[in-house]
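Reader question, answered in our methods column.
A reader sent in the components of a multi-part assembly and asked whether the whole thing could be modeled at once rather than chain by chain. We filled in our standard form and ran it. Here is what they sent:
COMPLEX SIZE: two components
ENTRIES:
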Amino acid sequence: MTDRSTIEVPELGLVVLVGASGSGKSTFAQRHFNVTEVVSSDQCRALVGDDETDQSVTAPAFALLHEIVDKRLQVGRLTVVDATNVKREDRRPLLELARKWDVLATAIVFDLPIDVCFERNQQRSDRTTPQHAIRRQHKAARRSVRGLRKERFTRVHVIDTVDRLDGVRLERSRLWTDRRDDSGPFDIIGDVHGCFDELMKLLGRLGYETDGSPIGHPAGRRALFLGDLVDRGPASDRVLDAVMAMVEGGTAMCILGNHENKLGRALAGRNVTVSHGLAETLEQLDGRPQEFRSKVASFIDGLVSHYVLDDGRLVVAHAGLPERYQGRSSGRVRSIALYGDTDGETDEFGLPVRYPWAEDYRGSATVVYGHTPVPEAEWLNNTICLDTGAVFGGRLTALRWPEKELVAVDAEREHYEPVRPLLDERVDRPALLLDVQDVLGKHHVETSLAGRITIDAERSSAALEVMSRFATDPRWLVYLPPTMAPVATSRRPDFLEHPDEAFDYYRGAGVAEVVCEEKHMGSRAVLLLARSPQSAKERFGISNEAAGVVVTRTGRPFFADSSMTQALLDQTRSSIEAAGLWDALATDWLLLDAELLPWSAKAIELLKTQYASTGTAATTMLASASALLDQATNREIDGLDDLQARTASRLSDAERYVDAYRQYCWDTDGLNGIQVAPFQILAAEGEVLARRSHRWHLEQIDRLVAHAPSLFRPTERRFVDTNDDAAVAEATNWWLQTTESGGEGMVVKPVNPITTNEKGLVLPGVKCRGREYLRIIYGPEYLAPDNLERLRERSLGRKTSLARREFALGIEALDRFVANEHLFRTHQCVFGVLALESEPVDPRL
Amino acid sequence: MLVSITCAGPNSSDLGFLLHKHPDRVRSVDVGGGRAHVFYPEAAEGRTTAVLLVEVDPIRLSRLARGRKSAATLEPYVNDRPYVASSMLSVAIGKLYGTALSGTCDTKPELVDRPLDLEISVPVVGAPQGGELIARVFEPLGWEVDSTVLPLDAAFASWGDSRFASLELRGSKTVKDALAHLYVLLPVLDGRKHYWIGEAEVDKLLRHGGDWLAAHPERELISRRYLRFGSLARDALARLAEGAVDSDERDEGNDAGENALERPISLNEQRLDAVMDAVVRAGGGSVVDLGCGEGRLLKRLIAEPSVTDVLGVDVSLRALDQAESRLRLDELSERRRERVSLVQGALTYADARLHGRDVATVVEVVEHLDAERLDVFARVVFGEAAPQTVVVTTPNREYNVHFERLPPGRFRHGDHRFEWTRAEFNEWVLAVCSEYRYTATFAPIGNDDVETGPPTQMAVLRKAAS
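And here is the structure of the entire assembly that came back:
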């Protein structure tokens, strides 16, 4: 209560108005708060009982009031409770809610002279409260004031005059932890523990001028220390010297670590156990003047438990912080930020066992923390621990923000002997849990390419069954391929699909350069492979002998026999090795999108039961009919000519249909005869390569093919300027030739896969299938003029929309995976693709 | 599709009179989804052949099929329907040879009951059971049968035979009988109908099969395949007045195979008894049945007084629908209805709805999960939901040697990802116990064979007191 004319309330918190009826609470609330911020008992009475004054609904009305407060505090909104709140038991449930959601509670007491209350009450048009009730409330309110602090209201304001009531200003104060408006750039530095030399080396490597006073960065970057500057190490005092100067000079920020906390208490003369390297620090500080010690004490006193920075994208806390505590204020939040969530259990070395919050972390903010030494700073669910045990002879690590680059220097020696070996938390991570609520029911996925995509409940249900019963482990399944739309229906008399429409589409969409890629007719296969089982374990949290998976377009294992997967991935790995791709892309894993041939390898059952059956029945029956018709025509019977001609043409159609599917079949034995035609390298560590140009993809793939020409099949292509008629004609000719000789067709894509125009995302590709191939899809006789005319009525809208949404989801899945977000975030996108695939759409498209 | 009928011998021209079609003309009519034609490739003294050819419009056919078939496949667009002799050919016979089929011949009535030397050729007919069925249905009627199963694709010998054959029949028959045989038996061989089957079909079958079907040794199979519908087939057989009918013809769904395999020992009943017994011993309370399927166990749980409420969870919406109707949920009183809920869920996802239960039952479920996902399953059930008691049953692979119809090395159900021996099951259960602090007891279900143990094994896991 600095200035009596101003009341300060925290931006996030609970404000409880206390006062008798007629003391001006509602008017005050109306004047100073938004209408949605105020929850009043009168309003709740009206909501449940249609009447603001109906005392008989008091109990359900307050239940509703508490429910609203609960939900508002949960989502982090300032909430003002307008009720008399004059009794302690009225306030208790409100305070419990504030504690539950870790927000500050402010009380504003309206202690105006009782006559004023009477007078105001009389002026009410709708109702009046009996005088004896007001008198009782007034007395209770006045009596409350003294106890409010004890009840754990953080701040208590009293309005005791009409002048003050009318003149007071209300100010909303930002929480100390709230630095959302500060976007850095930062260099976040893990636990220093008195390792002054290492700190100087690290700052030097980060580009700071270490001889400056204070130390600063020429480009204005700032260091952000995660706490535990002190203890154990050789020069905690010098570290404090440097960091305090930087903080004071605005070239650094610092949050509180548990070691500073204890040091602060020791300096304040409190009785603390001198252990865990505190002795060293105190000894070093003893060599300093008292003035320096006081400065340290006040520096520590000013440190905050955690910061929320960069528009909420970054949270720093010494021991990390689960999402629900971020940006909140309470003793509990402070304690968890400092020590982690412990329940008193200790391990075999006597160190506290902490709840592994990072494993379950699902927040959207990146959490950077320290506290628990780890051998390697590694991302887990959008969190990273930077304490790499510098003082124990490990390294001192920094993370550049927003670049997310790690920079580290080795410790010069082991300054302090660790109680236990550094935990390798990468090993034996527990089975990762996805929650059914993440995917079931109607939900939305935000994508960078197509905005918010809705997945209907019905579609989720269908996908859940496939995903849980047939798909491969979701830790492997970081991507599913999107469907692809065909070109608009051709206007030419003999074609259902023709390249004209593909070029027209991209020209019209303002895409100058497209690539026409040969479309392979086999089965879609997504290959995910790590360099070794160990690297798979590290990156995916799961491994197998094949160090990867090969999955179908619905995420099922491609091969029933795991030795096939292993053989295929082993061969792929050696080509990647030989082509030098691991190093070129600085990655230990790759995700490839490919077509696996022959069609008969995967689809043999379908071929037998449907395609070959139809073929043999058609050719046998029609050959017989044709022969009988010829015989009858020889008898010169009138009226058979049309039937004879039609049947002959049907026979020829059936034969061409059989020829068409035969192109895509050959016998295989194990991997012998299997061909893989990769067409995109979707992602690698640190980069979603699917965003790169198709030119790059095809070049890399050519290199893979060159190293294993028997396994890999090259993809023929033409780069075409859509405005160059000659080039368009040449590509069209190429398509005609390849499709007449049995090719499936081609896919036309913008060379830059992610292209947008004023209408949004340009289709990432359209397929243009050959005339002969389409017999497999539309039936042997689809080209008969009468049939073709009817087939032209096909409608592409839904398919095109699906293709766009699934593509956006696929890229989003990769973005999230590459950014090390929690698995559920990636899984939602992958699940979304599968869910959309269950939408009923003409399967011939 | 096509059928040709040849009459050989001095009176071959009688065929034209009997069929009521002039040998020098073409006759065409519309039949549902196409157009049927009759023409004569030969009509000489001593040999007359009439061909009935049905031209099917494939696009119209696909549009008829849409909505009925799963929309996710290309089956409606690329299929054998236009080519295989099917019920559509019977319809065409009825339309174009209707008079002959009904045994009338106005110009030469004396011909109707006179047998002729007939040769019938159908280039593509259905050939179920590798073609064996063809002879079984035609030979008892006095036909000499010559059928050749068609290869799937001559270019791919390894693919083997198709489900079709070319058929030649020879015999001395009246045209009326020959047409009736074709009318009923071609769809029987095809095994599919092109339009909905109703009561009228029973009448047709009886009308055209009346004279000869009752005495046919395969009458049951013919009725069943013709009608494709248990109850109608039973109806037909009953009307043929041939005594008792196997009442167990209902469509048992996907589990039919497994149930049939295990039926002799009515294992399913014993399993449910054992599980209910374990639930009751655990004290009942609130029970969740994980992987409840069509609700066989749920039905028993609801009837058990010590069970206060029941949650059935399954990933298959179809199964949940079936469970809902099996339990007649919409007929229960509100008080009883409140005790039961059915939800879709998958056991590889954490699910707050499963928390706080006294007992979980996991009956014949784990073997449907991929072995790699068992860790997640265990964490979801024992780590997160953590009921006081978990009852798990699963097949005992060692027992499979007793199933004569099960080839060695195969599992009992197509979707089983594994089947455990007793030792393997024990090992898994004990590992779960040590990780999640449960204690386990094991019990056999079904005949506990000395060598192989029982067909089903059960473990009851109880949360250890902390």
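What stands out: Residues 67-71, 241-254 of chain B have pLDDT under 50 and may be disordered. The first strand of chain B starts at residue 2 and ends at 8.
Send us your own complexes using the same form.
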